[in-house]
Design a protein that fits this description.
Strand order of the largest sheet: 2-1-5-4-3
Helix content: 40-55%
Number of domains: 4
Largest sheet: 5 strands, antiparallel
Structural class: alpha+beta
Bound molecules: adenosine-5'-diphosphate
Number of strands: 13
CATH superfamily of the largest domain: Histidine kinase-like ATPase, C-terminal domain
C-alpha cells in the first residue's frame, strides 16, 4: 500500500517537473499536455493489465497468465496463487468423492441414496442389477415408481425402518431373495442397503427340510415300536410270539440307532472344514476288512470279488475311508438281488490317481436320479432302502469324506444292468 502511494507521488512529481520544464521552454499548452501525458501512463498501464486479466479469466486459465512487472505483478501473482489453491482443494475433494463412490461400488450390497421425496440421488451398480435400475436414466425418479412391489411401497410409506424387509422372487427366474433396510441420514434423506440373501434363504429352507426329514424318518420306527409295545402289553402272548415281537422291536430300535449314528457322522464331517489328515492307510488291510464285512452282510447270497492291483498306501483318515468304502460295498450288496455279483477293486490309474471302485449287477439307477443321489435322504427306491436298513444318508457321507480327501465320487449306472461307484483320489494322496 505504501509502495503504491509512493509510486503515485512519484508519477505526480514527474508530471509536475515535466510540466514545469515544458512551461519554461515551450509555453503553457505543451506544459499541460506533457503533465497529462505523464499522468495517463499508469492509467494506460492499468487498462492494458485489466484487459489481459479479463482475457485470462474468460479463458479460465488465470494460472498460465504471464506476470507483468510493477504494481500489477503482485495482483496477478496473488490471484494465480488463490486460483491454484482453490483448484487443488477441489481436486482433493473430488478424489475423496471418487474414493467414496469406488468404495460404495465395491460393496457387495446394493446401495441407494434417496432424497426427502424418495427420489434416487445415487445408486451403485449392484442396486441397479438387483432392481433393474439404470442410474443415468432413473436419477431423481421416485423409487416407488420404479420398484412397484406392494410390500416395498408399503414399507417406504410406513416410515418405520427399524426392521428390514425381505423381498423374495425378485429376478425373472424367481431365484433372487433380497433383504432391504432404510437408514435415515442428513436432511430427511434415506440410505437403502440391499443384501442378496438367496443363499441364506436356501440354507434356511434346507435346514427346515432336513429337520422335517429327520422327524419323518424317526417317527416311523417310533410309531411301529409303540404299536408292538402296546400289543405285547395288552395281549397275553405265548413266549414264541413275544420273542417274535421283541425281534421286530429290536430291528426298529436298530434302525433308529443307525439313523442317529449316520446323522452324527454327517454332523462331524460337516463341522470339520479342514482337509483330511495324511495318515498312511494300508490298502491291502482295508480290502481284507471290507471283504470280511461284505461276506457277513451278503451271507453267501452274492458272488463277491475283492482285488487290489497294487499294494500301495492311501494317505487319509483311516476311519473315514473305511466308512466311505464300506458304505459303497454295503449299498452294492443291499441293492443287488441274490445270485448277483459284486466286484470291489483298488487300482492306480496311468495318471497316478488311486481308484476304489465297486461294481454290482443290481437294478441300476436311471440317469435322472444320478445328480441327486448324494443329497441327504434322497432315495430312488424308498421301500428297498428301508427294508435293507438304509438311512438315506450313506452317499451323502461318502460325498463328504471324498471332498475332505479331495477325491471325486463318480457314479456310472445302466438301469437293469448294474452300477459302478468310483472314488478317485488325487496322486498326492497315493504313496507307493
Ligand atoms: P440308503 O441308505 O437309502 O442306501 P444312500 O445314500 O446310501 O442311502 O443311497 C441313496 C440311494 O441311492 C439309495 O436309496 C438307492 O436308491 C440308490 N443306490 C445307492 N447305491 C445303489 C446301488 N449300488 N444300486 C442301486 N441303487 C443304489
Amino acid at each position: 500500500m505504501l509502495s503504491a502511494l509512493s509510486r503515485f507521488f512519484f508519477i505526480v512529481c514527474l508530471a509536475f517537473i515535466a510540466a514545469y520544464i515544458a512551461l519554461i521552454n515551450w509555453g503553457q499548452i505543451v506544459a499541460i499536455a506533457s503533465g497529462i501525458a505523464i499522468l495517463a501512463i499508469p492509467l494506460v498501464y492499468s487498462y492494458i493489465n485489466l484487459a489481459r486479466l479479463r482475457k485470462y479469466v474468460l479463458a479460465d486459465s488465470v494460472e498460465s497468465m504471464p506476470l507483468p512487472s510493477g504494481f500489477w505483478e503482485e495482483v496477478f501473482f496473488r490471484l494465480q496463487r488463490l486460483v491454484r489453491n482453490l483448484k487443488q482443494q477441489v481436486r482433493v475433494i473430488e478424489q475423496q468423492h471418487d474414493r467414496f463412490i469406488e468404495a460404495f461400488q465395491a460393496s457387495p450390497n446394493g446401495i441407494v441414496m434417496l432424497d426427502d421425496q424418495d427420489q434416487i440421488e445415487w445408486c451403485n451398480a449392484i442396486a441397479e442389477r438387483f432392481f433393474g435400475l439404470n442410474f443415468k436414466r432413473d436419477a431423481m425418479q421416485r423409487i416407488n415408481f420404479l420398484i412397484r412391489r406392494p410390500e416395498f411401497v408399503q414399507y417406504l410409506n410406513r416410515r418405520q425402518f427399524e426392521e428390514p424387509l425381505l423381498l423374495e422372487r425378485m429376478s425373472s427366474d424367481g431365484n433372487l431373495s433380497l433383504m432391504l433396510q432404510a437408514f435415515p441420514f442428513g436432511d430427511k434423506r434415506h440410505l437403502l442397503l440391499i443384501q442378496d440373501v438367496t443363499d441364506l434363504q436356501k440354507a434356511d429352507a434346507m435346514r427346515r427340510d432336513f429337520v422335517a426329514n429327520v422327524s419323518h424318518e424317526m417317527r416311523t420306527p417310533i410309531t411301529v415300536l409303540m404299536g408292538f409295545l402296546e400289543t405285547v402289553q395288552s395281549l397275553d402272548l405265548e413266549k414264541s410270539q413275544r420273542d417274535q415281537y421283541f425281534d421286530m422291536m429290536m430291528s426298529q430300535a436298530q434302525r433308529m440307532k443307525s439313523l442317529v449314528e449316520d446323522l452324527l457322522t454327517l454332523a462331524n464331517l460337516e463341522s470339520n472344514t479342514l482337509p483330511a489328515p495324511m495318515q498312511a492307510v494300508q490298502i491291502t488291510t482295508m480290502m481284507a476288512l471290507l471283504k470280511n464285512d461284505a461276506e457277513a452282510l451278503s451271507q453267501g447270497r452274492h458272488a463277491l470279488n475283492f482285488e487290489s492291483t497294487t499294494s500301495c498306501t492311501l494317505l487319509g483318515d483311516e476311519r473315514e475311508l473305511l466308512s466311505a468304502f464300506s458304505n459303497l460295498v454295503s449299498n452294492a450288496i443291499r441293492y443287488t438281488p441274490d445270485i448277483g455279483s459284486i466286484n470291489a477293486s483298488w487300482s492306480v490309474n496311468p495318471q497316478g490317481q488311486g481308484e476304489f471302485s465297486v461294481t454290482d449287477t443290481g437294478p441300476g439307477i436311471s440317469p435322472e436320479h444320478l445328480p441327486r443321489l448324494t443329497e441327504r435322504f434322497y432315495r430312488v427306491d424308498r421301500s428297498r432302502s428301508r427294508d435293507t436298513g438304509g438311512t438315506g444318508l450313506g452317499l451323502a457321507i461318502v460325498k463328504h469324506i471324498a471332498s475332505r480327501h479331495q477325491a471325486q465320487l463318480i457314479i456310472e449306472s445302466t438301469p437293469g444292468r448294474g452300477s459302478t461307484f468310483i472314488l478317485r483320489f488325487p496322486k498326492e494322496r497315493v504313496s507307493e
